[in-house]
Amino acid sequence: MQKIEHIGIAVKDLKASNILFEKLLGIPSYKEEEVASEGVKTSFFMQGPNKIELLEATKEDSPIAKFIAKKGEGVHHIAFAVDDIVAEITRLKAEGFVVLNEIPKKGADNKLVAFLHPKGTNGTLIELCQEAPTVAE
C-alpha cells in the first residue's frame, strides 16, 4: 500500500455538505460524480496531499443509505492507494482478511476499487484503490 488515498464520509445531503466542507477547508469541491452501480453520488475535495470524498445515497437500499440508517453521518471508509489491486487482494486474502469483492470494480474518480470487511479491520471499512488503466483510442 502506498498511502491513504482518501477518507470517505457518508452524508445525507451532498449539496449542504459541499457548502460545509467548502467553508471548513476554504476550497471548492474539484469533482462531483455519480456511481450508479453503487447508488451513490460523490464529491471530492483536495487539501494539499489529502483527499476527502463525500458520499450521498441515491437509492434507499445502497450501502451508504444503509450505513447512515444504522450509524448516522460520518466516516464511512479509509481508502488506500495500491499499485496492483489484484496482487493486493491476493496478498490480503492470504493474510486472512475478508475481501468483499474479489474482482475489482469501477469506482469514482477513475479508480478500480475493492473493499475489506470491517469485521476484520477493527470495525473500519477499508477500500483499495488503483488508478484505472486508460484505454487507447
Q: Can you walk me through this structure?
A:
InterPro entries: Glyas_Bleomycin-R_OHBP_Dase, MeMalonyl-CoA_epimerase, MMCE/EMCE_epimerase, VOC_core. One of its GO terms (biological process) is L-methylmalonyl-CoA metabolic process. Belongs to the methylmalonyl-CoA epimerase family. Residues 3-131 form the VOC domain. This protein is α+β, with helices and mostly antiparallel strands. The protein has a single domain (1-129), classed as Roll (2,3-Dihydroxybiphenyl 1,2-Dioxygenase, domain 1), CATH 3.10.180.10. The protein has three helices and eight strands. The model has no long low-confidence stretch (mean pLDDT 94). An eight-stranded mixed beta sheet has the order 2-3-4-1-5-8-7-6.
